[in-house]
Design a protein that fits this description.
The chain is of the alpha/beta class and 235 residues long. The chain is built from 10 helices and 8 strands. The radius of gyration is 17 Å and the shape is globular. It binds pyridoxine-5'-phosphate.
Length: 235
């Protein structure tokens, strides 16, 4: 299973002082050197962490795949088409949320998302849709032409260590199986950490986990290279 490291919170720290430290590109290069297959960044509408210039610098300097998380807006589509990252993960975005709160509603936004996928495919960009483990959303993702889905593991992560964990875990397992049966490749992410991540190995055929907050947090104590390596060992 591959690891995609989300480095948004390196930019959060940088932006806290408005300067250039810590350098997002240097962080990405360390993750790449430590073995991450992908570097994930979420260019939010309000640019609260990653900025446009970060995405351009990553594209110029990285060998690892760049996975651009973005909302389904015309502005983000145009940026993606001009930067041409390896992949785009389409996420829902609410201005006031602290982090991505739920999966994309592909059923309700089917036309818009289908057109966006078509546009991104015209530049050979692989498209993933960040959705909850919901069979209807999975079917709509396949119908819309997505290459991958990324299963939102937030509910599982919140339930980890409680009696609801099995229910949430089985939802992910069933969702992954169904998605693969209709031709989708499956990634997962959100809220995964050094304690709960091992269970992801029990979900057959997962391609990649996208993990950010726990790795950047751990890096404060052991350094980024070690934090990435420790996560790679676990998955
Ligand atoms: N995957 C997606 C689509 C996300 O939006 C996020 C959060 O930005 C992550 C993965 C990583 O989540 P976390 O920071 O909780 O590991």
């Amino acid at each position: 299973m591959n690891l995609g490291v989300n480095i948004d919170h390196v930019a959060t720290l940088r932006n806290a002082r408005g300067g250039a430290e810590p350098c997002v590109l240097d962080a990405a290069l360390i993750c790449e050197m430590a073995g991450a297959a992908a570097i994930t960044v979420h260019l939010r509408e309000d640019r609260r962490h990653i900025k446009d210039a970060d995405v351009i610098a990553l594209k110029k300097n990285l060998k690892a795949n760049i996975n651009l998380e973005m909302a389904a807006t015309d502005e983000m589509r145009d940026i993606a088409l001009s930067v041409a990252p390896y992949s785009c993960c389409i996420v829902p975005e609410k201005r006031l949320e602290l982090t991505t709160e739920g999966g994309l509603n592909v059923v309700q936004n089917f036309e818009k998302i289908s057109k966006l996928i078509e546009a991104l495919h015209s530049k050979n960009i692989i498209v993933s849709l960040f959705i909850d483990p919901d069979l209807e959303q999975i079917k709509a993702s396949a119908d819309a032409g997505a290459d991958y889905i990324e299963l939102h593991t937030g509910s599982f992560a919140n339930a980890f260590g409680t009696d609801k964990c099995d229910i949430e875990f089985n939802k992910l397992k069933d969702a992954a199986k169904y998605a693969q049966s209709i031709g989708l490749k499956v990634n997962a992410g959100h809220g995964l950490n050094y304690e709960n991540v091992s269970l992801m190995k029990e979900i057959e055929g997962l391609c990649e986990l996208n993990i950010g907050h726990s790795i950047v947090s751990r890096a404060i104590f052991v350094g980024l290279e070690m934090a990435v390596k420790e996560m790679m060992d676990l998955i």
